[in-house]
Design brief:
This protein has 245 residues and is mostly beta strands. The chain has a single domain, classed as Lipocalin (Beta Barrel), CATH 2.40.128.110. 13% of the residues lie in helices and 44% in strands.
């Protein structure tokens, strides 16, 4: 039996829509999340930093994590290393050039299970370079709280800044002033609201229908009336009680 091509298209669309809706969408809570990094300074030490402005979503399927995905946008100018002069340099053309390239993005293409754990494979875009990276991560759990659900994850990876045209390359006697390898460390908490229970419909007014006589309707409605108030009798005329009147 040959199935029409149009039927195959419909079945395929339904299959993919079912897979898409299997994962719950969580919004990243940046108040309880950190996008951090560290890089070598003068060969012997490391300088930590972070981005303070970012947003993103996680489509999380706890029954099959491989069907999950993540999408994040970082405002590059929010870089913070707790040193105003250094942060100004990092926003400049030799590093992030935030005036020309205001955002950094990551979007996963695949989540795979490996012998060492879970890995999100996706595209990291910094400045004018988009490059596929692997981001190993762990899921810390999912709970119900404050009328919704929350989930948390941690991830880390390493990139070479030269791959993304962050070209500052001043040298000192010991070696490069700024190392090429950048370690990325992420701690993420994300939330989604749970649907509210359905409200009970408001009581409807009872109205007579053609098949419902008025007398039957009156039996359904209890009418409370007050008895009429009687006027007090006028006082008797005392002259009428006199003898011989």
């Amino acid at each position: 039996m040959n199935m029409p091509k149009s039927a195959l298209v419909v079945i395929t669309a339904l299959l993919f829509s079912t897979l898409a809706f299997a994962a719950d969408e969580f919004k990243i809570d940046k108040v309880h999340s950190t996008v951090g990094f560290s890089v070598k300074h003068m060969v012997i030490s490391s300088v930590p930093g972070r981005f303070t402005d970012f947003d993103g979503t996680i489509a999380y399927d706890d029954k099959d994590v491989s069907k999950s995905s993540v999408k994040v946008t970082i405002q590059a100018a929010s870089i913070n290393t707790d040193n105003a002069k250094r942060d100004e340099d990092l926003r400049g053309p030799s590093f992030l050039d935030t005036a020309k390239y205001p955002t950094i993005t990551f979007e996963s293409k695949q989540v795979k299970k490996t012998a060492n754990g879970l890995v999100a494979v996706g595209t990291l875009t910094i400045k004018d370079v988009s490059k596929e990276i692997e981001l190993p991560f762990t899921i810390n759990g999912k709970i119900k709280a404050f009328g919704g659900e929350r989930m948390a994850a941690e991830a880390s990876t390493q990139i070479n800044r030269q791959d993304y045209h962050l070209t500052f390359n001043k040298m000192i006697e010991a070696g490069p002033m700024v190392g090429d390898d950048v370690k990325i460390n992420l701690t993420v908490e994300a939330a989604r609201p749970l649907p509210k229970p359905a409200e009970k419909p408001a009581a409807e007014m009872i109205a007579p229908t053609r098949n419902q006589p008025q007398q039957e309707l009156r039996r359904q409605i209890k009418v409370v009336t007050k008895p009429p108030q009687q006027k007090p009798a006028p006082p008797a005329d005392p002259s009428l009680d006199r003898v011989g009147a």
